[in-house]
Amino acid sequence: MRLFFGVLGLCWGFSLAYSDGYLWLSAASTSQTPQVYRFNLRTAQIDRTVSPAQVNGVPPSPDYTPFAYDGSVLYLGAYDQGLFARLHGYTGSFLSVGAYDWCSCFFGHHGLRDGAATEGVLWRAAPPHNPAYSYSYLVATDPNGELVEMLTTFAQNFALTGLESVNGTLYGTGSGRFVRIVRDEQNDWLFHVVDYALSGVPANHQLGGLAYDPLSQTLYMATASESEAALWSVQIDDAQQIATASLVALLHEKGYPLGSIPTALTWVPAIPGDANGDGCTDDADLLNVLFNFGGDHLESDLNRDGVVDDADLLEVLFQFGQGCGN
Length: 326
Ligand SMILES: [Ca+2]
Ligand SMILES: [Ca+2]
Fold this sequence. Notes:
By secondary structure, this protein is mainly β.
C-alpha cells in the first residue's frame, strides 16, 4: 500500500507541471444579459455558465465579476454596485448574497472589477467610471466585505481592471497597460504602477482579468476585441519589466459571447479525481472514468497522459470523497 502511495505521489508530482483547474470569467456587456463563465483547463472548454441576475437578491448589472477564490469560496461582485456574493467554487451555485459594508457613496465615482485573495484579504480593482478625470483605487476587505484599507494612485487615465497576486506581489491591467503595483514607501495610502512591455497580445485587444495558479505557477490573462476573446498565459520578467503572453484558448470559439469584455478572472484548483468538475470526487466520477475507459475523453483523463486507464481510475479511488460536503 505504501508503494502505491509512493507511485501516486510521483504521478501527482508530475501532474503539477500542467495547470489543472477552472477559470471563472466575467463578461461585461451592455447589449447582452451578462453571465459568468467557467473555462475548464483540462478539457479546454467553457463547461458552465451562471446567470447571477436570475438569483434572488442579486440586482441587475452589466458586469458580474467573479473576482477571487480564497481556497473555499468564489467571491462574486458587480461593476456598478456593492454586491458581495459567495459562490460554490465549482458549481457556481450561490451560497450567500450580500453587500460590501462601507459607504455607498464610493460607487458614485468608481466601479469594481477584478480582484485577488491574498493572506486573508480580498483586494479589488476600483477604476473610475471615467479615467480621464479620476484615479483608480485598490480596495481591501476581509472575507465578510468589511473595509480593511483603501489605496489610490495618481496614475493618469488609468482604469485598473485586472488584478492578481503572484506570491504576494500585485499585478494589474488597465487602459492597455500591464503593470506591477507598488505601495508608496512614504504614504501607505498611495500606490504607483510600474509598466511592463507586453508582447503577444494583438494591439486591438482590451486587457481584462488576471488569475494565478500557484501550483503550476501560471499567470492567466483574459482579453477581447470586437471579433475575438482570448485566454493567455503570461510570463513575467520583473527585472526587465517584460510580460510575454502565450495563447491558451480562443474563448469565442468555446461559447464566450463576442462583444463582451472579460474584466475579471479567477482560478479555482481542480479536486484530484474529480472528472466531472463539480468539486467532489464520488461515484459519478468513477462512472465517468469507467465509461470512457480505454479512450481519450479529456474529462476522464485526469492525469492528462492522453489515455483513460487504470492510473485515472486509481486517482478517483484514492481520492474518493475529496471535496464532498463543501
Ligand atoms: Ca465530481
Ligand atoms: Ca490518463
